[in-house]
Amino acid sequence: MAGALEGIRVLDCTQIIAGPQSAALLSEMGCDVVKVEPLEGEPWRLNAEILPKESREFTTQNRGKRGLAIDLKHPESASVRQALIRWADVLITNYRPGVPEELGIDYESARKVRPDIIYCESTAFGKKGPEAHLRGYDIVAQAMSGVSTSNPNLTNGLPQQIAFAPADVVTAVALAWAITAALYHKQKTGEGQAINASLLLSSLFIQAGAREITALDIEPRQKRLEMLHAARERGGTLEEIYAERRALLPALFGNIYYRPYQTKDSYIVVGCLGPAPRARFRAALEIVDPRYEPGFDSAKLKEEGQKLVAHCEALFRTKTNAEWLSQLSKADVACGPVRFVDELWEDPQVIANEYLVEYEHPRFGPMRGPRPIVSMSKTPTRIQRGAPALGEHTDEMLTQLGFPEGEIARLRACGAIG
Fold first, then answer.
1. Phi and psi for 86 in degrees, rounded to 5?
2. Cβ neighbours of residue 417 under 8 Å, at least 6 residues apart?
3. Is position 366 within any domain?
4. Do 125 and 61 lie in a common domain?
5. Domain range holding 106?
6. Structural contact between residues 315 and 301, judged by C-beta atoms closer than 8 angstroms
7. Which of 12, 39, 205, 394 measures 20 to 30 Å from 274, CA to CA?
8. What is the pLDDT of residue 176?
9. Which is it for strands 267-271 and 258-262: parallel, antiparallel or unpaired?
10. Domain holding 44: CATH number?
11. Are residues 34 and 90 in the same domain?
12. Is residue 275 part of a domain?
C-alpha cells in the first residue's frame, strides 16, 4: 500500500535538525524528498564524522531522502535551481532571513517559477524584530525562551540545556503538520501558500502551563520580574534567583508526587497529577500528607513539605526498583524506571510494539532505528531508504528533470554541481 503523501515532491533546502527532520517525516508519509546540499556537504553531515562526510546525526535527520549536491550561488546553477523548484510541490528552507533570497530559494522567487508552491520557512527567532537576522540554534532558543531556566538544577552555577534539542524536534513536527494541512488546502483550492515557524515560538509552545497568562497571573508575574531585575542589578547568581522564586511558591518545597526517587539499587520516577492519583500514591506508601487534611495551617506549607520529601526519599531507598515498581503499579500509580537510551534496543516493550526497524544505508549498510512515529492502517508509513551519501542522486535527479548527460557533465566540470 502507498503512503498517504505518495506522489508529493519535496525539495529540502535545509540544514542541521528542524528542517531536515520535517522533510524526513514527510518521506515516511510517502513523499519523494530530495535533499539539497552544498558541494562540501551540509554542516550536520560534517559534525563528528564517523566516516568521511558521514555523521550519526546526519543519518538520523535525513533518512528516506535522495541527495543532490549543488552550489546554489554558482551562476551556472540557476537552470538547475529553477528546474528543481518547478519539479517540487513543497520547498522547505531554514536559513536566516535574507539568505534564501541570496540563494534564489525565497518564497517570491519560488512562486514565480511554481505559482502553486507550498513554501515552508523555519527561522531561529521569526522573520521580524531586532533579532530576526541573528544566527540561532536550539540551545540559543532554549536560553532566550526560558526553557533553560525552567530547570532549577544547575551545574557549576550554570543553566543546562535539554540535550535532545526540543525546539528543533517540535519545530520539525510542526512543519510537517503544517505542510500536510497546506497540501489539503491546495487539493481543495489549487492554491499554494507560505508557512512560517521558528525555534523561539516552538520553545514557548512546549513550556506547557508556563506559556499562558491570565488576569490572575499578572501581579505574581510582575513580582517575579521585579525580583529578577533587582537580582541582575546587584549581580545575583542563578542560585539566588531560584531561591527567591521558590520562596514565593512554598508548595514547591514539598514535591513528593511528580519526581524521580533513588531506590535501593537504582532510580525510578512517579507521576501523580490530581487528587485521585496522589491519594493512591499515599495509600501505596502508607503515608499521610497533612497538606490534604482539613484545617491544615498553610503557614506550615514549606516546613511540612520538606519533612514529607525527606521521609519519602528515605522510604524509597529501603526497597529495590523491582519491588517499588510492583507495589506502585498494583496501586495504579504511574511510575517507571530511569533508563539510558542504549537499554531500549533490547527492551521488551519496545520490541513488542516493533518500535525499531532495520533499513539500509548506502555506506553504513544495515541500520536499526526507531520506526516512523505514527502508524496508519490504510496508508502505511515507512522508511524509504537510509540518508543519502553526499550527492548520491545528483545525476539521477538531473536526468529526471530532463538534463542531458553532456549538460550534467558540463555543470559538474564548472563546479555548479557535485
1. -65, -35
2. 39, 68, 69, 70, 71, 77, 80, 391, 394, 398, 408, 411
3. no
4. yes
5. 9-205+388-413
6. no
7. 205
8. 98
9. antiparallel
10. 3.40.50.10540
11. yes
12. no
Looking at the structure, tell me whether residues 85 and 30 fall in a common domain: yes
Grid-cell match 508556563, residue found: 210
Distance, CA of 182 to CA of 117 (rounded, Å): 10
φ/ψ of 69, rounded to 5, equals -105, 125
Does residue 221 share a domain with residue 191? Answer: no
Pair 118, 193: CB distance under 8 Å = yes
Same domain for 220 and 85: no
pLDDT in tens, the chain (418 residues): 899 999 999 999 999 999 999 999 999 999 999 999 999 999 999 999 999 999 999 999 999 999 999 999 999 999 999 999 999 999 999 998 999 999 999 999 999 999 999 999 999 999 999 999 898 999 999 999 989 988 878 888 898 888 889 999 999 999 999 999 999 999 999 999 999 999 999 999 998 766 677 777 788 788 888 888 988 899 999 888 888 887 777 667 789 999 999 999 999 999 999 999 999 999 999 999 998 889 888 888 888 889 999 999 999 999 999 999 999 999 999 999 999 999 999 999 999 999 999 999 999 999 999 999 999 999 999 999 999 999 999 999 999 999 999 999 999 999 999 9
Residue with cell 528515605: 314
Residue 365 lies in a domain: no
Looking up cell 519496545 gives: 350
32 half-sphere exposure, CB direction, 13 A CA radius: 12
Residues 84 and 401 sit within 8 Å (Cβ to Cβ): yes
Q: What's the Cα-to-Cα distance from 34 to each of 65, 69, 93, 215, rounded to whole Å?
A: 6, 10, 13, 48
Query: Is residue 284 domain-resident?
Result: no
12, containing H or E segment? strand 9-13
Residues 171, 117 share a domain: yes
Q: Which amino acid is at 309?
A: V
Q: Please give the helix or strand (H or E) that residue 107 lies within, else none.
A: helix 107-113
Q: How far is CA 3 from the centre of its chain?
A: 23
Same domain flag for 85 and 126: yes
**Pair type for strands 66-69 and 32-37:** parallel
Residue 403 main-chain phi, psi, to 5 deg:
-80, 130
Summarised one tens digit per residue, pLDDT across range 32-63 is 999 999 999 999 999 999 999 999 999 999 99
Ramachandran class of 261: left when φ > 0, alpha when ψ lies in -120 to 50, beta otherwise? beta
Q: Amino acid identity of 107?
A: Y
Q: Number of structural domains, the chain? A: 2
What whole-number distance in Å separates Cα of residue 159 and Cα of residue 156?
Answer: 9
Shared-domain flag, residues 236 and 111: no
80-89 pLDDT per residue, tens: 999 999 999 9
